Amino acid sequence: MALNQTPAAERVHIGFFGRRNAGKSSLMNAVTGQELAVVSEVKGTTTDPVYKTMELLPLGPVMMMDTPGIDDEGELGGLRVRKSHQVLNKTDIAVLVVDGTVGETEEDREMAALFQEKKVPYLVVYHKADLLPGTAEQKHQVPGVGEARVPCGKGACPVLYVSSKTGLGVEELKNRLAAMKPAEEEKDLLEGLVNPGDFVVLVTPIDKAAPKGRLILPQQQTIRALLDHGCISVAVRETELQKLLEGLGRKPDLVITDSQAFAMVSQIVPEDILLTSFSILFARYKGNLKQAVAGVRALERIQDGDRILISEGCTHHRQCNDIGTVKLPGWIRSYTGKEPEFVYTSGTGFQEDLRPYRMVIHCGACMLNEREMKYRLACAEDQKVDMTNYGIVIAHIHGILKRSLMPFPDIAALLED
Predict the structure, then answer these.
(1) Is beta strand 147-151 parallel, antiparallel or unpaired with respect to 156-161?
(2) 390-397 vs 328-336: helix crossing angle, rounded to 10
(3) pLDDT value at 37 more than 60
(4) 0.70 exceeded by the pTM?
(5) Do residues 386 and 253 touch, judged by C-beta distance below 8 A?
(6) What confidence tens digit (pLDDT) does each residue in 222-246 have?
């Protein structure tokens, strides 16, 4: 991903939901002006969620998401419906696509209720308006350009009549989506940590999981944040860190390291220099640092046979010394002296029922948007399962957690409780 591209996690996520053959894929294609999703008259053509990042004016950078039908049948169909519900956990704005030739069904009403339960803002769209009685002009005589009103929990929800075939209502749909865009909260990855002119060292091991010639996303975003703050920064591998510090004419104000190199970097960087990790930075940025610090204490109670869920927000080819499936389990076994059972998930495959697990260890979540991460955190909190993240666990195991939290005094104070 180029530095000038908006990361997927920072985009507005728009999900299209509805019954099979309601025309979700056709409508999403019409809204984007691209053939993003396969279209067919056969029910259930969309068997897996389809994702596409793009610029959608007047919204800006978005993630468009097409989903399987919510009325799918059978064992396989049930799995597809579940995937649709999982997509909802990361949806900022939902579009409920109703087949206008059939009308609203019980499945549609249940989906609308689910939107309300999860507090997801949504629009109800009656699709295939070109097949309904009346002319296009008559359909637009309703106040709000084709707007009707239907019961929708408390009050009523606006309905828009659209046709992906003729283009009726498509521009209006885009305008309404833009009006529903969540208010952008000014979030700063380095808030309170740096000042203009500060000198920051980034320790960036060459991650084998990253595409050749690229840095991983947390490193990219941190570099951009440092530029925005007017800081002076230098990136170095852990193997050259000692030489760098010896040759500097000034002491760094902050060192940020990849978690995998925490132990080595901590030994090299003097105690009077603030040190933290990309993973810890992102835990604070995503709003889960406090919960992650509290959750790491579960390691002290791990017993033989306890199940630990290790979850990553992205999918990548596993390397022979992969941090999630190899390094972390090895460090945990060595630290606890126990033999827990490890279970792994990646991408959108987060398990909703966490009760079988003693704890959850999550990645830095750089590829997940805020709504999805909050959902995962809430799942753990509601089920009283401790949840932490890679960087916190690694720092704790190597005895440097307190030091790595010194840049965040309010969070470091939790360790004294």
Answers:
(1) antiparallel
(2) 40
(3) no
(4) no
(5) no
(6) 999 999 999 999 999 999 999 999 9
